[in-house]
Specification:
Elements (H helix, E strand, L loop, with lengths): L12 H57 L2 H11 L5 E8 L4 E6 L8 H4 L6 E9 L9 E10 L1 H48 L21 H72 L5 H33 L7 E3 L1 H18 L3 E5 L7 E3 L1 H17 L5 E11 L2 E10 L6 H6 L21 H11 L3 E6 L5 E8 L6
Parallel strand pairs: 6-8
Antiparallel strand pairs: 1-2, 1-4, 3-4, 5-7, 8-9, 9-11, 10-11
Helix pairs in contact: 1-2, 1-4, 5-6, 6-10, 7-8, 8-10
Length: 496
């Protein structure tokens, strides 16, 4: 795919930078300009008040004389003299009882910005000066007052003019600064980046291992660093391509394994329908026989049928328990209950359970447990279930043979370990069968004509339980020569 070298104006980095500079500088300029205008506002007001007070100060003495002598002519001259100041709109010279000796008023100035200037200044302001006979002291009797009304329009107009000049000049300088930064960034950054883009566009995607050539005058600047970094990335991409090929191969193997697992589960469903129907049919059949023939059956015959019903129910319960156990393990809801376990007592209990199963196939059962074994910290229920699964598996696949169960203790990595070895002289397994024996829902013989029942969960559950206990299991077997399962379990002493 050909990469376009043209970048729209609004997408360029220089445009974005200039825009951000304008936003930031204009914002800062407005803030500082507003601060300057704010300070100027108070300076203008103070200057205005000072000017008015000076004007009134010059007219204070003649105004006091006019009020003291009640001279209307002099009072009029004072009033007209104050009107020479443009901002003064109304003047009143009052005697001591506030009667006007002279009073004049000019028409107020009008402007379109009066409404705007009133936001910053009041419309007018009144100045009052007390008049004494001697203007240099205020301890004498007051003979009158001078009231002057000042229109603040001129003050506001001048202030607003200066404020607009400050704001407009600030914005103009900011616009010029943004334009200069845009041009500089265009020349110093965009041009080298365009060269890099043109160089990168020459790379053949089918050969990412190729390296870019950096111009000599850019060997030590940012462009040279960018090209060197790009070359490093291209080499990394080439490495990743090779790794991806390996990963794809592994994914293909995983897919095939998933298909095998899916087939195993499909076979499991088929086996389950058979395995569930067999004990259920037995339970239903013997129950119907008992109902129909109970009056004619002897006590021994009834006991035999009830025993068969009990055996079929137990077999059905074991299958359901296996399914529940594998479900708990896969969902992570299986919990451990660590306690001190008397090993020899546990083995004797296991022997008592397994012995009838061994006798059923005329097998000889040998148990060896040293009496010197100490108590062991583990989950007794899960350890017993694991060992029973292994022994039951040995009894099922061995007929008129030998089954041995050995136990010993070792110290490894400063921890106490128990080793259990279950050996049988049964049918054994081929290498392909051995690889699948610990996979859930799988059996050594998955054919529809297999000679042994079961749903293929016992050894998978055993392996998962031993993993939870921190142990491991290994298998040595050969077709026709029996199998040996070896279990290693660490003691899980509680830490203080």
């Amino acid at each position: 795919m050909k990469v376009s070298q043209y970048i729209p104006f609004n997408k360029r980095l220089s445009t974005h930078l200039a825009a951000w500079v304008l936003v930031i500088t204009i914002s800062l300029g407005l803030v500082f300009s507003a601060l300057q205008v704010y300070l100027d506002y108070f300076n203008v007001r103070a200057e205005f008040d000072n000017t008015i007070n000076q004007v009134l100060k010059t007219m204070e003495k003649p105004a006091a004389q006019a009020a003291y002598t009640m001279d209307a002519v002099l009072a009029y001259d004072v009033v007209m003299g104050l009107f020479k100041y443009e901002a003064i709109r109304k003047v009143a010279l009052l005697d001591e009882i506030d009667n006007a000796l002279a009073e004049e008023e000019k028409e107020a100035l009008t402007s379109k910005i009066n409404w705007f200037s009133s936001l910053f200044f009041e419309r007018q302001r009144i100045y009052t000066v007390q008049l004494y006979a001697n203007t240099y002291t205020e301890n004498e009797e007051v003979f009158g007052s001078l009231k002057v009304t000042v229109d603040l329009h001129l003050l506001a107009s001048g202030f607003l003019d200066r404020a607009m000049i400050v704001l407009l000049s600030t914005m103009a300088w900011n616009l010029i600064l943004g334009a200069l930064i845009f041009l500089l960034f265009q020349y110093l950054v965009n041009r080298p980046l365009n060269k890099v883009t043109s160089t990168l566009a020459t790379i053949d995607p089918a050969h990412p291992h190729l390296t870019l050539n950096c111009p000599e005058h850019h060997q030590e600047d940012e462009l040279g660093q960018l090209i060197n970094t790009t070359n490093t990335l291209l080499n990394a991409i080439d490495t990743r391509v090779n790794e991806r090929e390996v990963l794809l191969q592994r994914m293909e193997m995983a897919r095939q394994a998933a298909e095998v697992a899916n087939i195993a589960k499909s076979q499991f469903i088929a086996k389950m329908s058979h395995e569930l129907r067999t004990p259920l049919n037995a339970i239903i059949g013997y129950s119907e026989m008992l109902q129909d023939e109970i009056d004619e059956m002897t006590e021994q015959e009834m006991i035999e049928d009830l025993t068969r019903i009990h055996g079929a129910g137990t077999h059905l319960l074991n299958m359901v328990n296996d399914i529940l156990d594998i479900s708990k393990i896969e969902s992570g809801r299986m919990e451990l209950n660590i306690e001190k376990v008397p090993v020899c007592d546990l083995i004797e209990e296991i022997f008592t359970i397994v012995e009838p199963r061994a006798e059923k196939n005329k097998n000889t059962l040998q148990f060896e447990c040293p009496k010197t074994l100490d108590d062991f910290y583990t989950d007794a229920t899960k350890l017993q279930q694991s060992l029973l699964n292994l022994l039951d598996n040995a009894c099922k696949y061995t007929e008129a043979g030998n089954i041995s169960f050995l136990t010993k203790k070792i110290i490894r990595d400063d921890r106490t370990w128990l080793i259990f070895q279950i050996t049988d002289t049964g049918v054994g397994m081929s290498r392909e069968q051995r690889d699948q024996v610990f996979v859930a829902f799988s059996q050594a013989d998955d054919s529809s004509t297999r000679a042994y029942d079961g749903i293929g969960l016992g050894l998978s559950i055993t392996k998962n339980l031993l993993d939870m206990l921190g142990g491991d299991i290994s298998l040595e077997t050969e077709s026709g020569k029996g199998s040996t399962f070896i279990v290693h379990i660490p003691s899980l002493e509680p830490t203080e």
